[in-house]
Specification:
Oligomer: heterodimer
Structural class of chain B: alpha/beta
Bound molecules: adenosine-5'-triphosphate, magnesium ion
Radius of gyration of chain B: 20 Å
Radius of gyration of chain A: 20 Å
Distance between the termini of chain A: 49 Å
CATH class of the largest domain in chain B: Alpha Beta
CATH topology of the largest domain in chain B: Rossmann fold
Number of helices of chain A: 10
Number of strands of chain B: 12
Largest interface: A-B, 50 and 51 residues
Shape of chain B: globular
CATH architecture of the largest domain in chain B: 3-Layer(aba) Sandwich
Structural class of chain A: alpha/beta
Shape of chain A: globular
Strand content of chain A: 15-25%
Order of helices and strands of chain B: EEEEEHEEHEHHHEHEHEEHHHH
Distance between the termini of chain B: 45 Å
Helix content of chain A: 25-40%
Chain lengths: 275, 285
Amino acid sequence: MTARVVEVSNLVFGYDKRDKEQTLTDINFSVNKGEWVAVIGHNGSGKSTLAKLLVGLLEMDDGSISIAGINLNDNTKWEVRRHIGLVFQNPENQFVGTTVQDDVAFGLENINMPYEEMNNRVEEALKMVDLSELRFHDPSRLSGGQKQRVALAGILALRPSVLVLDEALVMLDPGSRRELLLTLKQLNKSSDMTIISITHDMDEAAEADRILLLEAGRLVDSGKPSDVFSKHQQLEPPFSEALRRMLKRQKNTVPDTYMTEEELVNWLCKSHLKM
Amino acid sequence: MQITFKDVTADYQIGPLRTPRVLDSVDFNLEPGTFTAVIGHTGSGKSSLLKAMNGLLIPVKGEVHIGGTVINRSKNKKSLKTIRKKVGMVFQFPESQLFAETVEQDICFGPLNFGVPLEEAKRIARQVIQQVGLGPDILTKSPFALSGGQKRRVAIAGILAMQPEVLVLDEPGAGLDPRGKKEILSLISKWHNNEKLTTVMVTHDMEDVAHYADNVVVMEKGQAVLHKGVRELFADIHALKSLRVDIPQARKLQLKIEQETGVKLPQVCLTIDELANCLMKAGLV
Ligand SMILES: Nc1ncnc2c1ncn2[C@@H]1O[C@H](COP(=O)(O)OP(=O)(O)OP(=O)(O)O)[C@@H](O)[C@H]1O
Ligand SMILES: Nc1ncnc2c1ncn2[C@@H]1O[C@H](COP(=O)(O)OP(=O)(O)OP(=O)(O)O)[C@@H](O)[C@H]1O
Ligand SMILES: [Mg+2]
Ligand SMILES: [Mg+2]
């Protein structure tokens, strides 16, 4: 049996309470333990708002959220945050420590972790994001990508069972980004860390177990990447699928179902052999 | 406008200390009208390089020339003012650029500062906000009550409103949804061509390099280790490997297809259109 670590029912939220227009309307979904879910949608569709609601940084107007079996409300939000961690879209002005190391340790100090274990956790997190060398630097005086790593390390050190990433890797160079995604994938598979990743990178989303698609504050679809990209032709598909569609328009022999890169390369090999 | 770095070395002052060289003997020349992509690893000095073009980072050694204006150690106030008027910079984090109470005030600030009358500035604001794909209703909102991608769009709109001669963009596509990114980068590219701007763009996305830039500067540990034409750079797989530079998706898939099928495609493909064409030309489809 797979346990549901995140359950959201009939969630409603608006920033402006005088306004009838809601930022999020009637959102329902759940996430299983160990799942990797990508959240996609246009700028302003409500992704970051949803992320902040999940960790109790914003208060919902209606509906309910349950994390690791705990019903989220004002009294439980601190307990809930021991299970779910959010890495913000923008790390600027989020730093509390005067050194990278202190900043990463901050969350652990807050939960009164014994010194030795805290040290180990900080060490491990810094290593994961490749920041060990900069541990004594002032986090506010780092490059953009370095700041994003500090923010990520601070949450990883907490080892949350649910990790929410709000475009948390956009400012990393492609190599570091691939490496970090791999590290996260390992955590996801080996220690069942559930990952909810908000992203505009459709190739990253295509790798997820499931995609949640937001449109103007509504959850309009939830399904396997291949299904979501086939059904919503207005979405920018991953590269291989975009290429398949372009070829299909010119040649009828091209298959007309969604293709991953591997499937496309295999098909090209076969069609080449037939010639 | 020509941009020339003459043996530029720069660092940041932290209290009484100075950091190691964040720019180390950087020496290159960007011809007027060129579109240059700046790529490189985290912390390699890309943002610092852009700041040096805008007088936000002053060389400790060497000179930066923007057109006829020189920035060097003796930071002449007048030349800094001229530079800021000519060079429009979009920062890596849009939050560090937005400051006014409303989006409209934010966008009008640049034009007003350069003596444009208020009514005209407001007209420009309405025009540019639409160009970056936002509705006029956003003009009355606080820039801080916007989503990440909306902030980025407003920051870009603010720079377009200044009508600079040199455009300096630090990861302008980060945080934009795929369609928005295409629209906005195409808008910038069109603008670059029509107004004959000199444009410099930092990006981690090799698709941007392939689609919009004509030449590339690779930064590594504060040094500009390579300055080349885009096609030249991506053709040379060995150089890419040793520089640890990523390659555009079309090229990557091309290499994979060539390896798996044993068929060599007729040209180096940098975009999806080129790859589709080549696959048909080679008879693979
Ligand atoms: N602090 C705020 N106060 C008022 N309105 C806000 C605030 N933050 C966001 N909004 C509005 O709420 C809507 C949803 O914003 P949200 O940040 O959740 O979008 P998003 O999907 O994360 O977008 P992006 O991809 O651009 O980051 C947008 O219309 C935005 O303008
Ligand atoms: N304000 C600052 N004070 C001191 N050092 C800084 C400051 N900003 C950046 N640095 C350091 O200068 C070096 C170059 O940083 P820069 O921001 O130019 O890198 P970058 O190539 O833009 O990286 P990224 O891709 O992560 O944005 C880094 O080692 C960084 O830690
Ligand atoms: Mg967001
Ligand atoms: Mg930078």
